[in-house]
C-alpha cells in the first residue's frame, strides 16, 4: 500500500527534497569516484582481499550512482535506497576495519567506518520511507 508522505511542519516537504538531493548527490559522486579512480580503488580492494576487485569497484560504483540519483530524483526509491544500504552494509566492515589495521591507520579507518555508518542510517531512513509517495519526486517505482 502506497501512502502519501505528509509532514506537519510547513516547508518540511521542501526540506525533505533538499535532504534527498544533498544525500543523493553525495552518494552519486562517491559512485562516480569509483569510475574516475578505478585503478587506485582496485588496488585498495585487492589489498583488502576482495575477489575480482576491479569488477567489485565498477559494480559498486554503479550501485552508488544508481542509488544516489534514484534517491535525489525519487525514482525507484526502494531499489535506490536498498542499493546504497547494501553497499554500506557490506563495504563498511570489509574496507574500514579500524580494529584490524596498524595503529597509525586506525583513526582514518574509524572515521571512514563511522561516516559509512551514518550513510547506512540515512539510506535505511529513505528505504523505510520508500513505500510513501514523495513530494517533488519522479514517482517511478516498482510498488
From TrEMBL:
- What Pfam family is a match for this entry? DoxX
Q: Answer whether the UniProt record assigns the keyword tRNA processing to this protein.
A: no
Q: What membrane topology does the annotation report for this chain?
A: Multi-pass membrane protein
Compartment annotation = Membrane
Q: Which residues cross the membrane?
A: 14-35, 55-73, 79-101, 113-137
Q: Which UniProt keywords apply?
A: Membrane, Transmembrane, Transmembrane helix
- InterPro entries documented for this protein: DoxX (IPR032808)
Q: GO cellular component annotations, sorted alphabetically?
A: membrane
Q: Can you name this protein?
A: DoxX family protein
Amino acid at each position: 500500500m502506497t501512502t502519501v508522505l505528509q509532514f506537519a511542519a510547513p516547508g518540511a516537504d521542501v526540506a525533505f527534497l533538499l535532504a534527498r538531493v544533498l544525500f543523493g548527490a553525495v552518494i552519486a559522486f562517491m559512485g562516480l569516484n569509483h569510475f574516475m579512480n578505478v585503478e587506485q580503488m582496485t588496488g585498495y580492494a585487492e589489498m583488502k582481499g576482495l575477489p575480482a576487485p576491479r569488477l567489485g569497484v565498477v559494480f559498486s560504483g554503479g550501485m552508488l550512482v544508481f542509488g544516489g540519483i534514484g534517491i535525489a530524483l525519487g525514482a525507484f526509491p526502494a531499489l535506490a535506497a536498498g542499493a546504497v544500504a547494501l553497499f554500506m552494509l557490506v563495504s563498511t566492515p570489509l574496507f574500514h576495519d579500524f580494529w584490524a589495521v596498524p595503529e597509525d591507520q586506525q583513526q582514518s579507518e574509524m572515521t571512514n567506518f563511522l561516516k559509512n555508518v551514518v550513510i547506512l542510517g540515512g539510506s535505511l531512513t529513505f528505504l523505510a520511507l520508500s513505500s510513501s509517495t514523495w513530494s517533488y519526486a519522479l514517482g517511478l517505482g516498482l510498488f
